[in-house]
Structure formats: structure tokens, C-alpha cells
Write a structure and sequence with these properties.
The complex is a heterodimer of chains A (540) and B (200). With 540 residues, chain A is of the alpha+beta class. Chain A has 15 helices and 17 strands. In chain A, 34% of the residues are buried. Chain B is mainly α. The chains are: A alpha+beta (540), B mainly alpha (200). Chains A and B meet through α15 of A and α2, α3 and α5 of B.
Chain lengths: 540, 200
């Protein structure tokens, strides 16, 4: 009787749990994973200044500034606004406005297209007024409706009337309802940052190997921090802001964060390093404390980003501009895809290669990053590194980091042996995408930049290093020791230091094994001799 | 008449066999860490190596203490050159011709002159070199705190490796002599287990 009752209760309990699980999880599934209840003290839909029809986006900014009086002034100081930053260590002026890259070239003369990702309005030529407060784009970062989109060729503006894009296609790019957008502003979400940073270089996953549209709502298996089924971090959780200035620019990469855990009152308020939350001894101490010891020479990312481009979106790994310009027999532009559906050739841009689940390449990274400048001579007989990092084993500020290395071929000045920039976008005949004439295109861009061009161009292979920090794997999926501590492991190429498992002294090993084998041979001979002699003794 | 004499005390036998149990895995994992083969995998090999190394060092601290307090350390003092030459001649000549062993072990003098020399070099050269280089290797991140910035991991690793090769070579000779040179095969091994040596 008693046991009967108990089994009854147990069954009932199981049923309750089952019901709870079924309906509970069904209920959870209907909830958007990243919707958080707003804790803001301001409901923008109630603001009087936002109860109006806005004809342009800068008008919205003007309305924002009536309350957020300092916002634009803060933005004006940031790299997001200036696309220019002076490196504190090297003094080199870097940023999108300055550096030569290996993707879509330079923004000089291509403003209206490139600056569609700028957080401002109207940077369509060299005369853009960087002191204009109303031209700061508040909405691109603070829109929560997903309807506000900057138009690809409108120098940072959205479109104000519905229009087709690409031109003459049937796809209609909708004009946002600015009033609705303005009334719904909120804190930046992954979508807001992603709209530019996931699509850098001209498409999804093209530029960064660790940032693409799969990171909009990533599972925990894609990124342990941002996973919507885990910690559900948005970008600003780590890229903390101080007066609209975001931490964690790759132009000022911190090879080793020596500040450790950031708490109020410390000198470094940046959270954009692993150490700022995890400290520099993040692992549980077991028999060996070697994993914690590694933090002095190995970045967290090195073990915790075993592969990148792993969210289902491929990343571009090779871009060969030298093959651009080919048309089909009818003079029409070509677009070739491979068996995976990846675009491997387009007339405007040349030949591409893509990859998914890529293994990073490794290099020493310190705080010092350098870029190949326009006027800097290059070696025409070797591959040109567009950016380089100071650092080696003996540099206390450097650690081994994982990189996506972007490779490809791009135009250079054969006469001067310098990199060049080119004029791609525009309706004029100098634009490469109009006339497909490299010489005119390069000349136009170099003239605009005030740079010297010999008139003789060629193509040269380049590399560009992109440090990886996203798509972070959990401890279960992080790299095991053998990945590097083996004869031909991931760090086989890095030299200048001794690594157990990988390195040995051939001489010592030969001497050592000769000694061991010699000893073995010696005792064997000795033993054999004894057997022989004892037999002889017995017989004789 | 045959008689049994206690040569190896219980403590000696225990530490000898514990030492044996520790040294073999240390050599095996050590060469795995060196990258010569994969059995446990690097991390497991390192963990095992460190664990066994600490156990070995713990054991040896006891053993040194025992040797000092009991005076047993005197057993390792090299004997006269003549005795050594006799031993060498035995291994080089007489052992083949069936000559008698020139040395007769007793409780107070259990090591023959050659053993004395060999174990002394094990105790004062190979073991300390292994310890010091191993500890430096293990704590290489602390070199700066210890004022050893100039030290090179390559050198430390090489020294540790050299000690490992020496240990392995030593072990081979030791096993050969221990297993084969007593009256009957494994006689010395049995003595090291029971503690008793058959005497005539």
C-alpha cells in the first residue's frame, strides 16, 4: 500500500515536470531570445520633440540634440566619426581615412559608397564638415526597429523615398519611417553594430573572419559570451563606452592587458579585453598551473578561438584585383560562383577565395601596429605586408595571437615601388567601375590624395593581418595542448623560443640516443659473451 | 652451508621499489613531452610527469634524511682503487671465464666498489641536475622574480633532457646487472624483494 502510494506520487511528479518542460520551453521559444525589458528612465515615444514628421535624418539628430546636448560633441572625438586615429606608440596616423587596405581600396574619391557605413551624414567628398553636430547619425547605433538602414551609395544617409537597389533591379530599398524610428531609440544591439561591422569590405563576412551576420543571434557554440542561449552579451558589454568613445579598436590593439580585472577606480576603464573580466590567471589550478602560466606569452584568443568563420558564413581569404575587368562575349559583367555558391569572380572586383571553419594563423602581437603607407617604398620581389606588429618572445608586451590573414593581389606603382589607391566608384570616366581603366583610376585617386604616381602600375601580392577576438569557444571546445605542443603543430612557424613537444636539439637527441643504444648494445654484447663462454666452459 | 643474511632493510626495499615505480613513468612521460611519441597526450603527460616528479622529490627527501641519520650514506664512499680494478677485471674478464665474484656483500658493506661509484654519481650528479633543471623548467615564469632573467629555457630543457638520457642509460646497465649477474637469474631482484641474500 505504502509503496503503491509512493510510486503514484513519483509518476505524478514526473508528469508535472514533463508538462512544465513541454509548455515551459514552448513558451520560452516564442520569446525573442534577446528582448530584454527596457530599464531606461526615458520613453522616447512620449517626447514632444519627436512627435513630428522628419523629412531628413539630420533633422532627427537636431531633435536628439535638444536633450542630449553633448552627444555630437562626444562623437566628434571618436574614431567612429573621424575614421582617423593617431597611434599612441608609433605616432602613425591610422584609421579608415588613412590606411591602405587590401579590400575595396581607399575611401579617397570613393566617399559616397564607402561612407555609407560612416556614422554621419553627407561625407561625399573631401570637404566634409567634421564639426557639424547635426550630421552625426544617432539612429544607426540606436535604432531598435530594424527598419533604419543607410542607403549603400548615399554617403551615410538613409533613402527618403523607396527606391530600387541595386539600380534597375526589382529589389526595393524602403525608406524608413523616421518618426517611428526616432521614438523607438534604445541602447545599441548586436544588429546596430553588425550593420557595418558584419559587412565590412563589401559583404557578409568579407573582412573580419570572426564577425559576420551569424553573430546577430549566435548560439553559445558560436560565441560563448554572445550566445543567446547563454550569456547573451551585446557588443557594448565588452566594447564599453565612455562619452560615446568605444574601447577595443584594432588600431590600438592591446597585445597584453596588464591592468587585469577592471573595476571602478582602476586606471583602465576598458572592458574590451578578456583580462578585464577574467583576470590574467583565469584557469583553475590543477596538478599543473601551466595554462595560467601561458597568459604571459599566449593571448586568451589563441586557445579559445580554435577556428573562425564558423557560423555558416564564409570569410573572404583571397582577393585578386589583377583579374578584374573581364566581361563575357556580349560585353556583360561576369559573376561566377563555385559549387558552394560562393562568388569566386566578379568583373568589378576580380577573383575571390572563401573559407569556413578556418584555422587561424599565429603571430606575436604587441601594442605596436604599423601600416604600409602610400609614400612608403615596398619590395617588388616579395609579398607586401600591409600591416605588421612589433613583438617577439622576448617582448614583455607581446603575446601570440590568432589572426585571419587576408591575402590577395592589388595594384601598386611599378615606377615608385609604392602601394596605390584607386578611384573605383562614381559616374565619371576616371572611375574604374565605369571605364575599367586602372591607369586612369589610380591616377585620379593618387592625385586626389596628393600622392606621387609614376604612371606605371602592376599588381603585387599583399597580406593583411586581422587579429581575432570573437567567436570565442568555451573551455570544452578550446584548443588542447597537443595542438601547439607537437612537432608540426599550429605554432610550428613561430621561432625564437623553445617550446616543449615542438622543439628539440637534434645534436643532443642524437648523442642521447646513441648513448642509450650504445649502453643497450654494450650490455647485450656483454650478456651474449657470457652465454657463449659459459657454454664453452660447460662443453669444454 | 647456505645461510640467509638480511642485506636490505625494509625501508631500503620500500624506497627502492617506489623509486622504480616513479622513475619509469617519469621517463616515459618525459620523452612524450619531448615530442617523441604520443601515449597519454601532452596535457596528461605533463600532469603525470609533474605529479610523479613531486612524489619522487618527496621520497628522496625522506631517503636523504634516512641515509644521514642512519649513517648509511657511508656505503657510497668510494673504496680503494685496487678493489675497483678488481671489480672491473671481474666484469671484463672473469665473468666470462667463470671466475668468482671478488666482492662479498654484507649488511654493512652491501655495495661493491663499482656500485659505490655508480650510485654516488647518480646521487651527486644525475639526480641533482634533474631536480634543479626540472624545477627551473616547471617554474620558468618565476625566473624574473628569482633574478634569473638571463636563463634560457632552451638550455634548461637541454640539461633536463641530457639528465634523462643519462638516467635511461644508467637504468639499462642497472637492470642488466641486477637481473643477470647473480648466481641464478633474478637473484638480486629477489633479494631486493625479500631483503635476504643467500650466503655460502
Amino acid at each position: 500500500m505504502n509503496s503503491h502510494l509512493r510510486s503514484w506520487i513519483r509518476s505524478l511528479g514526473t508528469l508535472v515536470i514533463l508538462i512544465e518542460f513541454t509548455f515551459g520551453s514552448a513558451y520560452a521559444a516564442t520569446q525573442s531570445p534577446q528582448k530584454k525589458v527596457s530599464t531606461s528612465t526615458a520613453d522616447h515615444s512620449k517626447f514632444e520633440v519627436l512627435q513630428q514628421e522628419f523629412s531628413t535624418a539630420p533633422d532627427v539628430t537636431k531633435a536628439c540634440l535638444t536633450c542630449h546636448t553633448e552627444a555630437s560633441k562626444q562623437i566628434h572625438k571618436t574614431t567612429h566619426w573621424n575614421w582617423k586615429i593617431t597611434h599612441p606608440e608609433t605616432g602613425q596616423v591610422l584609421g579608415k581615412k588613412r590606411v591602405v587596405n587590401s579590400f575595396c581600396g581607399s575611401i579617397t574619391t570613393n566617399y559616397a559608397r564607402c561612407t555609407s557605413c560612416h556614422i554621419g551624414y553627407g561625407w561625399k567628398d573631401d570637404s566634409f564638415d567634421f564639426s557639424s553636430e547635426e550630421n552625426v547619425d544617432c539612429l544607426v547605433c540606436h535604432d531598435t526597429t530594424d527598419t533604419y538602414k543607410k542607403f549603400p551609395t548615399a554617403a551615410g544617409h538613409p533613402t527618403y523615398v523607396d527606391k530600387p537597389f541595386p539600380k534597375k533591379s526589382k529589389k526595393i530599398w524602403k525608406a524608413p519611417d523616421l518618426t517611428k524610428v526616432a521614438q523607438a531609440v534604445g541602447k545599441p544591439r548586436r544588429e546596430n553594430c553588425g550593420v557595418c561591422h558584419f559587412y565590412g569590405g563589401g559583404g557578409d563576412g568579407v573582412k573580419h573572419g570572426d564577425l559576420d551576420s551569424s553573430m546577430t543571434n549566435p548560439p553559445r557554440t558560436l560565441d560563448v559570451h554572445m550566445g543567446v542561449d547563454g550569456l547573451n552579451f551585446v557588443c557594448t558589454e565588452c566594447h564599453s563606452t565612455d562619452g560615446h568613445d568605444l574601447k577595443g579598436s584594432h588600431y590600438t590593439s592591446v597585445g597584453k592587458d596588464k591592468h587585469g580585472i577592471d573595476i571602478p577606480g582602476r586606471d583602465d576603464q576598458s572592458r574590451a579585453s578578456c583580462e578585464s573580466c577574467h583576470g590574467d590567471k583565469p584557469h583553475e589550478e590543477t596538478v599543473n598551473n601551466k595554462i595560467n602560466d601561458h597568459t604571459n606569452k599566449v593571448a586568451c584568443q589563441t586557445c579559445h578561438i580554435p577556428t573562425y568563420a564558423k557560423g555558416g558564413v564564409p570569410s573572404k581569404t583571397w582577393w585578386d584585383w589583377s583579374t578584374a575587368g573581364r566581361m563575357d562575349d556580349d560585353g556583360k559583367h561576369l559573376k561566377i560562383k563555385d559549387e558552394n555558391g560562393y562568388v569566386t569572380y566578379v568583373t568589378k572586383k576580380g577573383t575571390f577565395e572563401w573559407g569556413e571553419n578556418l584555422v587561424p594563423e599565429y603571430a606575436w602581437l604587441s601594442d605596436e601596429i604599423r601600416y604600409q603607407e602610400l609614400e612608403e617604398r615596398l619590395d617588388p620581389n616579395s609579398i607586401v605586408p600591409i600591416n605588421t606588429f612589433k613583438g617577439d618572445y622576448n617582448d614583455p608586451d607581446a603575446r601570440i595571437w590568432p589572426f585571419k590573414i587576408m591575402r590577395g593581389k592589388q595594384p601598386y606603382d611599378k615606377g615608385n615601388n609604392t602601394l596605390v589607391i584607386s578611384h573605383l566608384f562614381g559616374k565619371d570616366r576616371e572611375a574604374y567601375w565605369k571605364s575599367f581603366n586602372w591607369n586612369r583610376s589610380i591616377k585620379a585617386a593618387m592625385d586626389a590624395a596628393g600622392a606621387d604616381y609614376s604612371g606605371d602600375y602592376g599588381f603585387i601580392e599583399t597580406t593583411m593581418h586581422w587579429p581575432l577576438s570573437h567567436m570565442v569557444a568555451s573551455k570544452e571546445e578550446a584548443l588542447g595542448c597537443d595542438e601547439c605542443h607537437s612537432r608540426n603543430g599550429r605554432l610550428a612557424e613561430l621561432s625564437g623560443f623553445y617550446m616543449p613537444g615542438r622543439d628539440k636539439s637534434d645534436l643532443l637527441d642524437i648523442i642521447g640516443w646513441l648513448a642509450v643504444l650504445g649502453t643497450l648494445g654494450g650490455v647485450s654484447l656483454h650478456g651474449f659473451g657470457r652465454v657463449l663462454f659459459s657454454r664453452k666452459r660447460r662443453n669444454g | 652451508m647456505m645461510s640467509n643474511e638480511m642485506i636490505y632493510t625494509r625501508f631500503e626495499r620500500i624506497w627502492h621499489w617506489v623509486l622504480a615505480i616513479l622513475i619509469l613513468p617519469l621517463l616515459l612521460t618525459g620523452f612524450e613531452i619531448h615530442g617523441d611519441y604520443t601515449i597519454l597526450g601532452f596535457e596528461q603527460a605533463v600532469d603525470t610527469h609533474i605529479l610523479f616528479a613531486w612524489a619522487l622529490m618527496g621520497l628522496l627527501v625522506f631517503v636523504i634524511f634516512w641515509h644521514m641519520t642512519t649513517g648509511e650514506w657511508k656505503q657510497y664512499i668510494p673504496s680503494s682503487k685496487n678493489n675497483l680494478m678488481a671489480m672491473l677485471r671481474y666484469y671484463a674478464v672473469d665473468i666470462f671465464l667463470g671466475g668468482g665474484h671478488p666482492f662479498h656483500m654484507t649488511r654493512t658493506s652491501k655495495l661493491n666498489p663499482l656500485q659505490r661509484l655508480a650510485y654516488l654519481s647518480l646521487h651527486v650528479v644525475i639526480t641533482p641536475v634533474t631536480w634543479v633543471s626540472g624545477l627551473l623548467y616547471l617554474f620558468y615564469t618565476s625566473w624574473g622574480d628569482w633574478g634569473l632573467e638571463g636563463l634560457s629555457l632552451t638550455v634548461v630543457a637541454m640539461v633536463h633532457m641530457a639528465a634523462a638520457f643519462a638516467m635511461l642509460a644508467f637504468l639499462i646497465v642497472h637492470l642488466y646487472l641486477a637481473i643477470t649477474t647473480s648466481e641464478k637469474p633474478f637473484g638480486y631482484v629477489k633479494a631486493m624483494i625479500s631483503g635476504y641474500e643467500k650466503k655460502e
